[in-house]
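Appendix B: complex inputs.
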Amino acid sequence: QKEVEQDPGPLSVPEGAIVSLNCTYSNSAFQYFMWYRQYSRKGPELLMYTYSSGNKEDGRFTAQVDKSSKYISLFIRDSQPSDSATYLCAISGSARQLTFGSGTQLTVLP
Amino acid sequence: GAVVSQHPSWVICKSGTSVKIECRSLDFQATTMFWYRQFPKQSLMLMATSNEGSKATYEQGVEKDKFLINHASLTLSTLTVTSAHPEDSSFYICSARDPSSTITGAKNIQYFGAGTRLSVL
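Resulting structure:
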């Protein structure tokens, strides 16, 4: 079993839709949770960081963490074609190395 | 925010030559930097952890004599692909942590460069 599981998609939605991206993890020692966005042939860009269970909102993006279920989510409201990218969850513990999900490829259709 | 610059963005070289990729933290001092390799439609694969002033730590299966890493200053790490072959063609990405961050756990965040596409002919 991988330490972090992420549905690779691809996921295709119409413009304006709410997008839900998810990851599950197996190690309860993981404490810090990140979402990165990666455009084709570019480096990952940090979108959201959180370290506690619950929701964190930033503009159209909401990160949700449920440590009891070892489940994290990223919601994108009012999705735009410019949101089309690969989204990577990344999780870290005390060792500070990041463990990445496999990435979900998202396409938002105009 | 923390900015990491990576250069060059794309390099084409002949088989047998060496290529150097630079990774710089522009607005913070990075004691630790990371080098990743990414194949098309796959996630990032950690190659090595680069620590300022000491030897890099390589992941299992990564040839340290082929992928030379130098982290001579707090803002610069370099990856040299020696005697490159077509199978080394890939997308290489560096990242750095900002040790000065005071937000809980934020020292775990890695900030990534834009990546370098290496094509070996």
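The two ends of chain B are 37 Å apart (CA to CA).
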